[in-house]
Write a structure and sequence with these properties.
This protein is an alpha/beta fold. It contains 18 helices and twelve strands. It has two domains: 3-97, no CATH class; 125-157 and 247-436, 3-Layer(aba) Sandwich (Rossmann fold), CATH 3.40.50.10680.
């Protein structure tokens, strides 16, 4: 190893050591440590003045002169005593912090310095807005929360199937299913929260098939008085990183114009679109003109990077983009707008689609000039078995062109290769942001 590499390695180890993390400017600790040292110095000067006065006026026995190291040269004495004082202060602060924080630290937790360092690093991370729905959006949020706390998930409200559809019809609330997934993904205790929120009741009268998380959000909406307040209160209860917002508060329905062997026909309802047995021409909101949620527009305008997808193209991503004001906000934003193409095609929505087909479908609905780049999976030499219904073929990466900027990365989940891997996807997005929007 060369001397330069060796010195760099030593520096890296020192930089990542717990003591350095405590002193990191990013954590705001150094300023208070300097103030503490300044106060201790003033106190020490006061005692020194008192002892000097006593020494000159009363005199000290010979043993006191030896114990106080008066026989040493003044400069050496100052360095030695000062070093001992700093060591004592540092040890006392570390032990004091451990004693104070001991009731809040569980066995197996990271060192406090590491936790605080990561928190302050993420607090200064990029402002990320993710737009979508379904499991794709929660997959991305689960990974990106390790890079930044400045996260806004904008979720579709067009879902009308399953437990969400029943609650929507019976209780008059916005469909909570996609919000449930996103809240669980961003929760502080993600594993337990996900297990709890995804729990579905069995053969219980009135509860059959309902997810606990859906009932939780619905109950919170009733208690707090509104769906948007329910999301705020739920976020506090779960201590989530970032925030989850609806694209609109309006009660919308999704329909699609589909080419079939019998010709062009219209299919009503988000849950029926993928089972229609034809090729989707376009999707339509009913009513066609609805107001966007103001906080969602503000988040888009203030973002550093806006991620569209991953998720079902026509039933998760596009319903958000059809909301009045959202396409205009995407064009006005200075953020990098990154479309994350799915790993595989989806039966009933994107059969036979290429990467450019996905982009052209978006532009057919909201016009060109919105997407800056497309993130695609580069690992295409893989096959899968026992894939769930709806999973088609792997989408091949395309070479960049004048109209399509492609970023290729291995983002496949090793266990479920037709899905994105949360950490890989988040890392690829952060790298794309650094490369294309420094």
């Amino acid at each position: 190893m060369s001397p330069r590499k060796a010195s760099a390695s030593i520096f890296d180890r020192l930089r990542l050591a717990p003591t350095w993390k405590w002193l990191s400017l990013d954590m705001g600790v150094r300023r208070w440590l300097v103030l503490l040292i300044f106060g201790v110095t003033l106190l020490g000067l006061g005692f020194a003045y008192l002892f000097v006065d006593l020494y000159r006026n009363l005199g000290l026995p010979d043993v006191a002169t030896v114990l106080s190291l008066q026989f040493l040269p003044p400069l050496l004495w100052a360095v030695l005593v000062g070093g001992l004082g700093i060591t004592a202060i540092v040890v006392a602060l570390i032990r004091l912090n451990r004693s104070i924080l001991k009731p809040f630290i569980r066995p197996g937790d990271q060192p406090v310095a590491d936790i605080l360092y990561q928190h302050y690093q993420r607090e200064r991370g990029p402002r990320v807005v993710a737009i979508g729905g379904g499991t794709g959006l929660s997959t991305f949020l689960r990974g990106i929360k390790h890079y930044t706390t400045n996260i806004t998930g904008i979720v579709t409200v067009a879902d009308d199937g399953g437990s969400s559809g029943r609650l929507r019809r019976e209780m008059g609330v916005l469909p909570p299913g996609d919000f449930r997934n996103c809240l669980a993904a961003l929760a502080d205790d993600e594993a337990l929260t996900t297990q709890l929120f995804q729990y579905r009741f069995g053969q219980v009268e009135g509860l059959d098939g309902h997810a606990f998380g859906n009932l939780f959000i619905t109950a919170m909406a009733d208690v707090s008085g509104s769906f948007e307040q329910a999301l705020i209160e739920s976020s506090r209860v779960l201590a989530i990183v970032g925030r989850i917002l609806p694209s609109t508060l309006s009660d919308i329905r999704l329909s699609a114009e589909i080419h079939t062997e019998q010709g062009l026909r219209q299919v009503e309802g988000e849950s029926a679109i993928t089972h229609s047995g034809g090729k989707i021409e376009r999707v339509i909101l009913q009513p066609a003109r609805v107001r966007p949620y103001p906080e969602s527009i503000r988040a888009i305008l203030e973002a550093d990077v806006i991620v569209l997808g991953p998720g079902s193209l026509y039933t998760s991503v596009l319903p958000n983009l059809l909301i009045d004001g959202i396409p205009a906000a995407l064009r006005a934003s200075r953020a990098l707008v990154l479309y994350v193409c799915n790993v595989a095609t989806q039966h009933g929505e994107t059969d036979g689609y290429s990467v450019s087909d996905h982009v052209q479908a978006i532009e057919r609905h909201i016009g060109p000039g919105v997407i800056d780049a497309v993130l695609v999976n580069s690992r295409t030499n893989i096959e899968w078995q026992n894939a769930p219904p709806g999973v088609g073929k792997i989408i091949q990466a395309e070479p960049p062109s004048e109209t399509l900027r492609i970023i290729a990365a291995d983002v496949i989940d090793e266990t479920y290769p037709w899905r994105h891997d949360s950490p890989k996807l988040a890392r690829a997005v952060i790298q794309a942001l650094g490369k294309l929007h420094p």
